Amino acid sequence: MAAAELYGQGARVWIPHCTEVWRVAEVTRGYREGDDVLHLRLDDASELVYPVGSQLPPLCNPDVLCGEDDLAALSYLHEPAVLHSLRVRFLEANAIYTYCGIILVAINPYKQLPIYEEEVIYAYSGREVGDMDPHIFALAEEAYKQMSSGSLIISGESGAGKTASAKFAMRYFTTVGGSLGDCSVEEKVLASSPVMEAFGNAKTTRNDNSSRFGKYIEIGFSQTYVTGATIKTYLLEKSRVTFQVGLWAQGYAGVPRAWRPAEVPVSWHSQEKLA
């Protein structure tokens, strides 16, 4: 479709804004090929002459698609459309999950939500992706149902909730399939997390307990049961482990006296770091 038809009078576009990032404006005079500006009207009824430059501003999606649970269903898929859809779903529908094709987009609400209980897990069990609202349990069910070698790749910036998402996925597997033994794999993996986090985590400007390394968690199944898990770390800064000498002292303090070696340093803090 020609630009003159898309940017006719009444069309809505997104324009950059210094505080709102993107703002909606309505075209008041149809665009013609070769025009250097667009005549727009903002929400506050003020008029704006917007310089076109080398690229026309992104078009708004129809109102009927506002809050769509799959971004791939949008007529126009670009940065302002994605941000607006996620904002509407998060603020108006209190929905932190949104699909984008086979990808699940998650927004960290920084608070506890009642959407991870056992009854919610069983509600997603046996369902197809798309039958219910977007959720980490829906992806976990899809992986569990196929019961073949595969991976759930969880990525995001610091504080996005990657570690929490991995825990929820493991909880789904152990709840639906069960585990062999008295202690679930999820509990064992979660119990080991504080040890690794003590050596590999750090406080950042966005997260007080940011994981400064990657974790590859491999979960083993026998039929439908979870039989075990292997955790491998990567991109771990060795110097971060070396300089956490206080953790060794705390760990040593917890060892029963009968198990301690005969000769120990007088003061852990007085020892030179050799690595």
Walk me through this protein's architecture.
A hairpin with a 3-residue loop joins strand 1 and strand 2 (21-29). The mean pLDDT is 86. The protein starts with a helix and ends in a 22-residue tail after the last helix. Helix 4 packs across helix 5. It is built from 8 helices and 10 strands. The strands form 4 sheets. It has a 4-stranded antiparallel sheet with strand order 1-2-3-4, with no helix packed on it. With 275 residues, the protein is α+β, with helices and mostly antiparallel strands. It has a domain at 3-51. The radius of gyration is 26 Å and the shape is elongated.
Entry summary:
One of its GO terms (molecular function) is ATP binding. With 275 residues, the chain is an alpha+beta fold. It is built from eight helices and ten strands.
- Number of separate helices: 8
- Outline type: elongated
The secondary structure category is alpha+beta
Percent helix: 25-40%
- What is the number of beta strands? 10
- Beta percentage is 15-25%
| Unreliable stretches covering 5 or more consecutive residues | none
What's the quaternary structure here? single chain
Distance between the termini: 64 Å
Major sheet strand order: 1-2-3-4
Determine the mean pLDDT: 86
User: For the report, how would you describe the main beta sheet?
Assistant: 4 strands, antiparallel
Radius of gyration: 26 Å
Order of helices and strands: HEEEEHEEHHHHEEEEHH
